[in-house]
Amino acid sequence: MIQKKKLYIYSGFIWCVLFGVMSFYWALGGMAGVKSLGGSIYQHALKREATFIAIVWLTGFMKLGGGLFLLLLLKVWSIKVHRILYYIALFGGIFLVLYGLANFVSLSLAFTGLLSMQIEGYALKWRLFFWEPFWMLGGVLFILSSIKFNEEKNVSIVKGHKI
After folding, report:
1. Which sequence spans correspond to the domains of the chain?
2. What is the Cα–Cα distance from 123 to 66, expressed in whole angstroms?
3. Per the CB 3.0–4.6 Å rule, which of 56, 62, 64, 79 could disulfide with 20?
4. Which residues contact 112 (CB under 8 A, 6 or more apart)?
């Protein structure tokens, strides 16, 4: 069970690092893959607006922070800290899944013509088949990490180990 916990945590950490590195690459002026985001994001990236670039840097650091947070789940904590970490990871994961799912649904409606959106077909397909599932994957990894983290606490209590 501990090995599964590590697998989910390290996978989530890698997901966060990859996502953060993409943001840093774009913040530094890299343009590969930016067109796949489409809409106003692509337009802001082309214009290299200072406020937008600052936001891209900030999101990169937030993504790395999420990865570092997941590494906290590798350690045994007091019950109070354990609960706090568990709920942050669980609710963070739920948020990521719901964010990706909401975008996926709206983009699916646009893809079928039931919703009008200001996004070109190239970006629409990338968002629908890569970016939104990528968000949901990260959410699933956070949720699984939190569940395995919590299961380990319960096993420790049953075995009589003090947390």
Report:
1. 2-158
2. 26
3. 64
4. none
